[in-house]
Amino acid sequence: MEQKPENSPLDELAPTRVVVLVDASPDALHALEAGADLARRHDVPLLAVSVEEPDRVRSAAYSFAREIGAVSGSIRPLYEAQLTRRRQRAPATIRRAIEQVADARNLAWELVVLHGRLVDEVLALSEPGDFLVLGRVGWSARLGRKLGRASLTLAREAGGTVYICSAAPASERGRIAVLVESVDSGRTMIGLSVERARMAGRELVVLLAPSAGAHGTERLADAFGDAVPRWRSRALPALGTGDLLRALAEERVVELVVRRGDGWLGSPGGRRLLERLPLTVVVTN
Question: Of 34, 53, 156, 174, which has the maximum CB count within 10 A?
Fold first, then answer.
């Protein structure tokens, strides 16, 4: 079993379990791999969750029902019998994928199949100590989105940390960024970003919002201590979409850590940026 580093900033914040939302899509299977790695690192069980939404099943009974291909984008008829066969095959397919991933890492795991609205069922199942791992997007990628609405809603409303992982190739020189609106209220998020940078072997860049104050960099140095050897700060002139896009591009950011209680995540600009950028996003309290 892989050992956690000594004096980890997350010793008191380590998850009690890793929960992965799974289906047969490529993004979800990538999330399964990422979740299994996290569960192994923290030595906690892996809970895989599959949600069957009854509204979709009922909609297949209508003669005008159509589906959109996740890869091709083609529109084709959706038949009730066809959907039923898929539902019957899905648990076995998902179970085999989980078995392969978990057995390779010697993990304790469980698969739970729920019935209802995806967001409602996952929120009801979630606990504060969970690390919830999601894929970024499904068929809505054909509409130009990089983040599905269910993933964004869960990121905003879940009680624990949410990890929305991107299957897009990440640059070897890419950095992890943490958006800090307040150094004092963001200390848990700062600790998490340190751990993420350490795990990935990447440089950490701190994006300081104007609300962090004129002495934000000095206070960050005190918050970090000697926890991470490679980090730098960048003061943002504003939290506008253009300012953030420019900073993320110039800093070659491949993963963004944000705080659920801060204003940016709940803003329309935050939603639009997250929907469009193919980044891995970590949301914590």
Answer: 34
Least Cα distance to 257 among 212, 174, 190, 208 occurs for 190
C-beta of residue 217 within 8 angstroms of C-beta of residue 208: yes
Tally helices (H) and strands (E) across the chain.
Answer: 9, 12
In order of 174, 185, 219, 228, the CA distances from 224 in angstroms are 21, 14, 9, 7
Q: What six digits make up the tokens of 221? A: 């140095």
The one-character DSSP state at 210 is G
Higher pLDDT, 4 or 49: 49
186 burial via Cβ count (<10 Å: 0-12, 13-18, 19+): buried
Reduced 3-state DSSP string for 92-158:
HHHHHHHHHHHHHHCCCEEEEEEECCHHHHHHHHCCCCEEEEEECCCHHHHHCCCCCHHHHHHHHHC
* Mean pLDDT of all residues in 246-270: 91
What is the band of 43 on the pLDDT scale with cuts at 50, 70, 90? very high
Q: Establish how many alpha carbons lie within 13 A of residue 252's alpha carbon, considering only the half-sphere containing its beta carbon.
A: 9
Report the alpha-carbon distance of residue 267 to residue 179 in Å, rounded: 14
Minimum mean pLDDT among 28-42, 94-108, 244-258, 265-279: which range? Answer: 265-279
d(CA 37, CA 18): 10
The answer for residues whose C-beta is within 8 angstroms of residue 191's C-beta and 6 or more apart is: 9, 10, 13, 227
Q: How far out from the chain centre does Cα 141 lie?
A: 16
Q: Tell me what pLDDT residue 255 has.
A: 93
pLDDT at position 140 is 45
Give dist(CA 193, CA 43) in Å, integer: 20
